[in-house]
Amino acid sequence: MSTPRFSFSPDQLRNMATDVLAEARSQGATSAEVEISEGVGLSVTVRKGEVETIEHNRDKGVSVTVYIGQRKGFASTSDFSATALRTTVEAARNIARFTAEDDCAGLADPALLAKDPADPHLLYPWDVDVPRAIEIARDTEAAALAVSPMIRNSEGASVSAQQSQFVYGNSNGFIGGYPSSRHYVSCSVIAARSARAKNAMQRDDWYASVRDPRDFPASELIGDYAAQRALARIGSRRISTRQCPVLFEAPLATGLVGSLVSAVSGGSLYRKTTFLLDALGKQVFPKNVTITEDPNVRKGFATGPFDDEGVQTQKRDLVRNGVLQGYFLGSYSARKLGMASTGNAGGCHNLVLQPTVRDDFAAMLRRLGTGLLVTDLIGHGVNMTTGDYSRGAAGFWVENGEIVHPVEEITIAGNLKDMYLGLAAVGSDLITRGSTTTGSVLIDRMTIAGE
Fold first, then answer.
1. What's the pLDDT score for residue 3?
2. Do 182 and 303 touch, CB atoms closer than 8 A?
3. CA-CA distance, 340 to 86, in Å (whole number)?
4. In terms of C-beta density within 10 A (0-12 exposed, 13-18 middle, 19 or more buried), how is residue 194 classed?
5. C-alpha to C-alpha distance for 101 and 233, rounded to whole angstroms
6. Cα 407 to Cα 397: distance, rounded to the nearest angstrom
7. Average pLDDT over all residues of the chain
């Protein structure tokens, strides 16, 4: 592993944060918080063997929030000079002077702040230069194009290596931060039976995203799988309107968990714009469903000892025996609801929808029996206030546990309340996408709108 080429040391960022907080106090702030961050990376895209883009990024920023009583002002800058930092604090203070008081505004409760947070060890720099990144992208795409003559075109292969670091501090005495990395390799291709079959072309893709480049699968496997997915969709057709069981492929099933997160997050709750209002302690899923949140997962994409306000994060069951055990709250939304922060300012931490069966993907198809396997979703037809769910979809029609033919140009519809309660099984074919890990998810019944 190489050393990241950051422009500032962690101590320099901490000293800068301390100086900003001191400046806020000197300008009359009753309290303040600051976040200072820096990122550096390389991204390369290759299409049909030719380099399309090479991008080096180097970003930095300072965000300052100033409170005068319970009036709040915010300002930011990408200039780290002492003069710019002083001007940014002044801008935030001036905004605070003219905003209305909000009795829920303010820093996190000092009693909830993390004490001496440890480095979660999320930094794994990738020593990849431009020639090597181009080589990986070309190998990935070439592997896809070599799978079959029916792979007619490519949308390209991309390689990205990113490192970043941050420090957060507030006037209640908290200061902490750490570096991290995130890298990915992706490929997208187009398949058709013949070069002239423009109306029968099918596209699909695949990618791998890791903290540690040593955890990447062989890039050729990524390209090969992207091609296999595109080929499998050739000959897609509509099916008639019906009701049937639906199996969400694991990468898509993470979206069902994402809708739950939105529904039980503080902003939706205190605004009363969620279909799970007052659901705490109530049955939301079948009794065999458990969803855990763990901020301590090694190399996790949502790992961290504290949230965006410095509040200590905690491992917990979000759902246990199908019953909702908690919400996602930052300090502001917690005060609005008369509750305490759950350490989720900035989002959730490594959610896992635990398998309810030992079935791999093939076994989940057999469990589906006759119904629809969904591998692609189109649009954003989810009403978070009512729970109504309606999205364009593509996938495969399955009979007796075997894929019969690919399907496209259909809509799947239901209501998330019913879908959650009708969750028949979660497979063991786990995949992680962002902050969520789940296997394929079988819903007992949905409406399919087709021909």
1. 54
2. no
3. 33
4. exposed
5. 56
6. 6
7. 96
